[in-house]
Please model this.
Amino acid sequence: MVGCFGLRKYESSDHTRLNKNAYKALKSDEYENIQYKLSSSILSPEKEGYLLNTIGKLTIAGVTKYIEIDNVHIAVAEDSTITCTGTYNLTMTDYGVEPPSFMFGAMKTGDALTFEYNVVYKKAEESLVFIQEIN
Model:
């Protein structure tokens, strides 16, 4: 399974200049997506659904690293909708991304980054439809 998340889709109208700096740092003109390619996973039942632990390759700004994503919570609704939620922490410099700065370098963001995700799969007539939401 491969998931691609378009960088330009996620921006805040309140922070236009900060968005531009983040896009530049992430080399979004050259690399439009963040990609995760699943290699293996372990699914365990839990009280309110399932818990998924995965190993795969995460690509950011053209740099690919093997990572483990643990504690992905999976819920299956009565209408067969599948919702996967969780977080993943990383450092930008591990992917060759210099943390963005603004005000001519006087202000810098931190190196640590937390992805919060809520991925929803809905059953269509003949297949599953993928809907993504990342904060």
